[in-house]
Amino acid sequence: MSKKSNSAAILAALLAGAATGVVLGLLYAPEEGKETRKKIRDKANDLKDKAVDEYSKTSEIVKDKYSEVSSTVKDKYDSLSSQFKETAQNVAQTVKDSYDKYKDQVVSKTSDVVKDVETELDGMK
């Protein structure tokens, strides 16, 4: 928004300078007061119309930029969201696979220990 403020300030300064130049030029012109006031009024209306046109153009540019940035942010969010979901699924699957692997190893070792204990107990009888 800083660029918009700077652009608006520059535009306002240019218009004020132009208006001041027009008014001074007309006031020192060797014409009748009524005619000079009409010219000042016409020039002021022209400057107002130009300012409105410039504001409209600037406003459209800002709206277009906002839409562009908004779309880019949405696309990036969607992309990152998909990547996160995929990574989370991969991690969950890796954890499940590791759990199953180690569970089978523990069950196997436990069975071996139980058999060894049974054998020892049978030998003691």
TrEMBL record:
<dbReference type="Pfam" id="PF12732">
    <property type="entry name" value="YtxH"/>
</dbReference>
<protein>
    <submittedName>
        <fullName>Gas vesicle protein</fullName>
    </submittedName>
</protein>
<dbReference type="InterPro" id="IPR052928">
    <property type="entry name" value="Desiccation-related_membrane"/>
</dbReference>
<dbReference type="InterPro" id="IPR024623">
    <property type="entry name" value="YtxH"/>
</dbReference>
